[in-house]
């Protein structure tokens, strides 16, 4: 059967991705049955990734630490039919034993996510996300495993892309407490203080992480890029936008806004929309994120080096609109716009999905209306 997706165009870039000599001139994207290790495979996104890998005919092994931030129940023995080994990726001997079982590629989802509560969370973010990735990379190199898909995040960009009418593209400074408290939510031009027009970030935009979590994701990207250079391996880093869908964890300090709104509605409460609700995000359905992982995995079989991709729908929405749609679909109370703010939040971050489409053949398939209608009644993770 012919593959309908466009051929990838891995170009030599500053990221250093190039087609492998082995595959040069051959048709890419032939699906090979591969033994894939999915870290964090019992989590929200990981479970969907495992399901998609299985459906595509891969052999899958799952490792998961059962971190209490993500799991309130004991871990199952299997995820979507794949065996689950309970381990923390920082446990190098245990990880080495799993990798030694003929693993061809790793899909690294294991991470602590969200803004967190306070700076006491910082060591755990760095421990799980950065030390965890470092131990994984060292173990992969030792085991001769050279293909990696990294779950990264749009939080590495900080604020999205902005243009000033007078000064062109600019990068605004982080918003101050004084501005936020006064209801001045939109970033202003650092040169003339004019209100800026938000645009789409692309993968070549500079990294500007603005929370401990964001910094830990940026560090994962740097570590994996260094690993790719040193080992000649292939890394596809997927910068997820706001992921939502069935199995999302219930309301915790580490949950994304969709889960928080959905949990409120389930309890009969109105979603509380911070700032003025005009902040923009890109909500991408978790099954689309799983499909992006599959496409990313295929790409690691056709090239070497390091390459980042936005995983986004390409259809930005405001947080107020998402809350309204979700409340309507759940038949719950309409949202309340509270004017509250969180200092770690950025105002708008939405991205161009073009690179993932042209190079990976990935395009989000689940529309927001359809996804929200499902999500309004889908089970959450307990
Ligand atoms: C989110 C995730 C982040 C993930 C990224 C990309 C969290 C905390 N953030 O970042 O881990 O990497 O998507 O997938 O999990 N808001 C409300 N009411 C609330 C909670 C939040 O209005 O009750 C607003 C926030 O002020 C913010 C927006 O919703 O403007 C999005 O919040 P959130 O999903 O928490 O953070 P992101 O920065 O989008």
UniProtKB/TrEMBL annotation:
**Disordered, as annotated region:** 1-26
SUPFAM superfamilies to which the protein is assigned, alphabetical: NAD(P)-binding Rossmann-fold domains
Query: Pfam families of this UniProt entry?
Result: Epimerase
Q: Record's Gene3D superfamilies? A: NAD(P)-binding Rossmann-like Domain (3.40.50.720)
Q: Which InterPro entries match?
A: Epimerase_deHydtase, NAD(P)-bd_dom_sf, Rhodanese-like_dom
Q: What region holds the Rhodanese domain?
A: 34-79
- Pathway of action: Carbohydrate metabolism; galactose metabolism
Family the entry assigns: Belongs to the NAD(P)-dependent epimerase/dehydratase family.
Name under which the protein is recorded: UDP-glucose 4-epimerase
């Amino acid at each position: 059967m012919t593959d309908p997706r466009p051929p990838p165009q891995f170009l030599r870039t500053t990221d250093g991705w190039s087609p492998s000599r082995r595959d040069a001139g051959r048709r890419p994207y032939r699906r090979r049955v591969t033994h894939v290790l999915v870290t964090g495979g019992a989590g929200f996104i990981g479970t969907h990734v495992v399901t998609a890998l299985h459906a595509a005919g891969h052999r899958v092994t799952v490792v998961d630490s059962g971190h209490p931030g993500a799991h309130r129940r004991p871990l199952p023995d299997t995820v979507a039919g794949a065996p689950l080994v309970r381990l923390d990726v920082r446990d190098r001997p245990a990880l080495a034993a799993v990798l030694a079982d003929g693993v061809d590629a790793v899909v690294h989802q294991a991470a602590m996510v969200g803004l967190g509560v306070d700076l006491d969370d910082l060591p755990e973010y760095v421990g799980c996300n950065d030390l965890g990735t470092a131990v994984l990379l060292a173990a992969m190199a030792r085991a001769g495993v050279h293909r990696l898909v990294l779950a990264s995040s749009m939080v590495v960009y900080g604020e999205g892309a902005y243009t000033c009418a007078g000064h062109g593209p600019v990068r605004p400074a982080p918003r101050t407490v004084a501005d936020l408290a006064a209801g001045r939510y939109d970033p202003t031009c650092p040169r003339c203080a004019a209100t800026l027009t938000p645009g789409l970030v692309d993968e070549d935009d500079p990294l500007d992480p603005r929370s401990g979590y964001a910094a830990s994701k940026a560090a994962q990207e740097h570590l994996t890029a260094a690993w790719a250079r040193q080992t000649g391996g292939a890394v596809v880093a997927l910068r997820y936008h706001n992921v939502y869908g069935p199995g999302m964890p219930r309301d915790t300090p580490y949950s994304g806004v969709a889960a928080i709104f959905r949990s409120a509605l389930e309890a009969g409460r109105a979603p509380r929309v911070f700032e003025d609700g005009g902040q923009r995000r890109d909500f991408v359905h978790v099954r689309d994120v799983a499909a992006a992982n599959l496409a990313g995995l295929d790409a690691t079989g056709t090239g070497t080096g390091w390459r980042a991709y936005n995983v986004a729908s390409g259809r930005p929405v405001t947080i107020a609109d998402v809350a309204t749609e979700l409340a309507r679909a759940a038949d719950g109370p309409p949202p309340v716009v509270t004017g509250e703010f969180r200092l770690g939040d950025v105002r708008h971050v939405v991205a161009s999905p073009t690179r993932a489409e042209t190079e990976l053949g990935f395009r989000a398939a689940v529309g927001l209306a359809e996804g929200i209608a499902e999500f309004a009644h889908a089970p959450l993770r307990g």
